[in-house]
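User: For my dataset I need records formatted as: sequence, then structure tokens, nothing else. Please produce one.
Assistant:
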Amino acid sequence: MLKPKLTKLGITVLLLTALSACQNTLKLGNERAIDMSPDFLALSNQEKLSLTNSWELVGKIAVITPTERKSAYLNWQQTNQELDFRLSNLIGVSLLKLTFDGEIARLDSDGKNYQDESTEALIYRATGWILPLDNLPQWIKGETNPEDKVILNDMGFPSRIEPICAKCIGWEISYSQYQKVQGIWLPFSIEVNKPTDKTRLKFKVSQWKRK
């Protein structure tokens, strides 16, 4: 009768370790008061998103390419151009850490260290994945540009975006499961797809936090 209890305890410890690993990451920039003023809350959701440049996302990511399909736990912190992007497995072991201070990007993966001026180039060198990291901070929030082709859902939020820019060609972003977080509606299920390269990124967000 004792052995099953130990097994359940072990599973619980592993899960708690994984959750704590997702939370235990570098804090970017200085903590500041979250704007919940009447003037801010009266803005449109897109206006609020454009002013939200410091945030944290916790959840899961799946990367699907013609040659592989991988998934991991994700902790992503963004403050303006500064980036801290970490992937870990179920038991909290680090798989990849990518940081960018606005000038130099650094990546740690499989015991190797890389540096470059481009986060996208670093990810490609280390993993072979083509990830649109220059645009993802905007796309992950559901923020649009005036030139983009946008389809809205019944709530008036983007359900699909075809972004228009030199580096955006071929990418499509789909959104679902919006929730209100600290005065802003944010997507909790995001799919970033490039059919010509047969590349998909699927994000399942468990927590958004404005910072």
